[in-house]
Amino acid sequence: MKYLHDNDFHVLSLDELQAFIKGQKKVPPRSVVITFDDGYKSNLIYAYPILQKYGYQATMFVITHMLPTSPQPFNANKLTMVSFTEMQQVRDVFSFQSHTDNMHKKKGAAPYLIAMPEQDVKNDLLRSKQMVHARFFAYPYGMYNSRVVRLLRETGYEMAFTTNRAYARQTLDVYRIPRFSIYRSTTMKAFMEIVTGQYK
Q: CB-based contacts of 89: which residues, under 8 Å, 6+ apart?
């Protein structure tokens, strides 16, 4: 985040990204979007203070059925989820969108979104959407098919994110937005190549 700040990058909201992809808005050449998947409390413990320091916005795609109502004790050795109470306290930095309600699972090799009956998938998408007032979606495991895209349209989602490593450009299908995953193992050199458009 310090590198982005020191090198005059602009951090876009998902609304700004959507307007850019649809050709409704120009954005600075050095623009990035910051997203987190699943809804872990570690995002609040580690990322929130740094993002707040630099005045950056980010989006958390949450698995809504896993979110507790009230805050849970944080344990770095266990998966602790952000609570609905905490979500209200960090909206100066985070917006919250859908990563399904209870379909971040696989049936064999296929994710639930693809493997489960259509009405079950549709109900899940609606439930998650209602719980966090979601407009945007991230595919669990980055996996989807044309049926999932159709159901997202039918349930009122406006944009969806994959895990395909590529740059977002105008005229892209808004239900197939690529993203670069940044891991603990990602070197600073690799990070710099990604955000400066040099990744091949």
A: none
